[in-house]
Each structure stands twice: as C-alpha cells, then as structure tokens.
Amino acid sequence: MLNAAEAVMDMHAKDDAERQRNRAQLYDEPASAGRAGDDLRVGQGVLMATAGCGSHSAAIVDRSGATIAPAQTLTAVEWTRTLDDTSTASVTISPDGDCCERLGEVRAWRHRLVIWRDGEFVWDGPILRPEWTSDGLEIQAADIAAILDRRVPHQSVDFGGDSDLADIAAWLIEDGYAPADPGHEVQIVAPAGVRGARSYTRDVGQTGDHLRELAEAGIDYTVVGHTIVLLPETHTVSLGQLTDMDLPAGLTVVEDGAALATRIIVAGDEEADVMGEVGDIDEYYGLLERYVQQNSIPDRPSAEAAARALLRSSRSVPVWLDSAQVTLSPDAPVNVSRLVPGWCLDVTSTATCRVLSQRLKIVGVRVREAGGTAGQPGSESVQVQLAATGAEAGS
C-alpha cells in the first residue's frame, strides 16, 4: 500500500516547467509567462474576442493517432463542456465518395471524435455510439473522463489528513489512466484549499465515482480536449462580461432551492463509524439538513472538512442563469473556444424581475451547428449555464 507521500511524489514526476508547457498548450499563452497556476492572462486574452459565428470540422481518429476518416460533410455538430462531470459531443456525417467505406469501419471505444471550431481544437473524446443510417453516420461521444468510469483504483493508498484535495484528485486521475493511457494531461490551477484524509483500495469502486465524490467536497474539475483541469471551488477568475444585449432572445434566472442546506452531515468509513457535521438552524431559512456518504473518508476531521466545504457552497440558495433556450449574440465579448467551466463571467441583467449584477461561474457550455452542407456552413448557437460561485455561496 502506498502512503500519501509516496503517492504525491509519484504523481509529481513531471517538473514545473513541463506543467507550464501543458498550460501553454491549453490556453495558447507563452510557456515562459508567469508561474504555474497563475491564469489571469487567460481572462485578459478572452476579453479582446467576440463569440462570432463559428464553423466546425471534425475527424475520426484511431487510438494509435491515425486518422480513420475526416468528416467531410457535417450536417449537424454539438459539443459541450461540463463542470464536475463528463461532457458529450455528437456529429452527423454525410458520406462523400469513398468516405462511406471508411465510415463503416468506425468502432465504439476504439476510435475518438475530434472537433475544431474555426480551425481551433475544442473537443476530443472516445466514440460511444456510432449509428449508421441511409443518410450517413451519427456519432455520440464523451470526453476522456468517461474512461475513468471504466477504470478502478490500481493501487491501495492512504492519504493523510493534511492532503489537499487537488493532489488526491490528480493521483486518482493518473492512477486511473496509468495501465493504458489514452493520452491525457492534468492541470492544477491552484490547490483546493480543502484538506483531509482519503483511503482507496485496489479494485474497489470506479475511479470516476471517486473523482465526483471529491468534487462534492471542495474541488472542481472540467475536461478541455485531453486535459483535465483541477481548480478550487472558490476560483473566481472572469473570462468576460455579459449584458442583456449579449442575450438578445432573453434568458432565465432560477433560484435552485433544492441545493440549499443549513446543516451537513458527512458519513465516512462505515466500519470505523466515521461522522462529521457542521451547521445548524438558519435564522432566515430554518433547518434544512443533508446527509452525504463518502466511504473513502477514514477519520472525523476529514469528514468535518468535507462537510464545511459542502456547507459553504449550499448555505445560500444558488442563483442560476440559463441560456439553454437562447444563444449568445455573435457580438458577445467572449471567446467561445475558451469558455471553460470553473471560470466566471460578469453578468448584468435587468431583463427579468430578478435583477442581476454579479460574477457567476460557468457550469455548462453547449455549442451547436446545424443545417450545414458540403458547400455551406450551418447556423451556430452557443448556450451557457452560470451559477453562483463557491466564494459567493459562502459569503
């Protein structure tokens, strides 16, 4: 069994210079600029861009890296990015010439779907469901986090109570991919700032489920291409500003009362009878209690730390801004390819009775292009879903 020190040393085999190069690849920033984790330049760069009207291209790629078939005629494209979960993408390809024979060779899990927007790489992941029709090929795919739902811990490890959740999450990812790595990078933007012990047993539980459990306790993650980004729940760097002019068809503002809690109980290792709780009756809302089971937590202090993190993000009713039924204006001052969940947008809206003027976290992005032909691109729509940041929820 590995101890925490051995696990973290193994995980940090790459040096700081290589981590900076990984960040540069993800965000197109100079590899020599700033220290690892300092992503302020990302927001500054995005403010100079506009959403525009994008056109997509795609390719089907083998595990070996060889291109199986380019998607020469795309009649529909959709790709998403999601906070703390697996994102999806889909394309509909109309065969052209001898392309039909190659499209017939596409296989689930063996091949990947890669998507570009205006020539810029935006999405990559394994194909889960190819469907052939008389009109062509429809592909459903998921990002590389889906592979972690088909992996288990390959070593038993105990992380001590002083372990940051970002280091634990990074170890889970590296261990999960290690036996047959599909090609991935891990970017730690900053430590989670939440510490606690965790224990994992070889071959017990799916790695993806373990990672989602950590995301409940004070860390966020998202997938961009082949990079899994880890960042603190309180991360509040802005990528731009939105007003009602940038959402010309309107928007929906929602208070999600189902997410509210004033007292959190976290149960850890059942055999050790581990339990941690924080919170009490709230003067405004009364008493709303939530029970969470996380068997990987081996001691009470770690259970209490997880409960504090959960309470911080759930003790006030989250406000959601959803453009799921409308699209961003092409003139919106954001770079669509760099809309990454976990980062924020500053939103000012008086379009509804609930007036908003605050920084909101991106929790979901959905980009669609439909109606394309061999000689004409389709029409694009860009939707974003935003929620109160962890910092605001805890204020």
- What is the count of helical runs? 9
Number of strands: 22
Point out poorly predicted stretches. Answer: 14-48
Mean pLDDT: 83
Query: Main beta sheet: strand number and arrangement?
Result: 13 strands, mixed
The best one-word shape is flat
How much strand? 25-35%
Structural class given helices, strands, pairing? alpha+beta
Distance between the termini: 40 Å
**Cα-atom radius of gyration:** 22 Å
Helix content: 10-25%
Topology:
Elements: E1 2-3, H1 4-11, H2 16-27, H3 40-46, E2 56-62, E3 67-70, E4 74-82, E5 88-93, H4 99-103, E6 111-117, E7 120-133, E8 136-142, H5 145-148, E9 157-159, H6 165-177, E10 185-188, E11 198-200, H7 207-216, E12 219-224, E13 227-232, E14 238-243, E15 252-255, E16 263-267, E17 275-279, E18 289-293, H8 300-314, E19 319-322, E20 344-349, E21 356-370, E22 379-388, H9 390-393
Describe the structure.
There is one protein chain. The chain is α+β, with helices and mostly antiparallel strands and 395 residues long. The chain has helices at 4-11, 16-27, 40-46, 99-103, 145-148, 165-177, 207-216, 300-314, 390-393; strands spanning 2-3, 56-62, 67-70, 74-82, 88-93, 111-117, 120-133, 136-142, 157-159, 185-188, 198-200, 219-224, 227-232, 238-243, 252-255, 263-267, 275-279, 289-293, 319-322, 344-349, 356-370, 379-388. It contains nine helices and 22 strands. Strand 4 and strand 5 (88-93) form a beta hairpin. Helix 6 (165-177) packs antiparallel against helix 7 (207-216). The longest helix has 15 residues, at 300-314. Mean pLDDT is 83; it is low at 14-48.
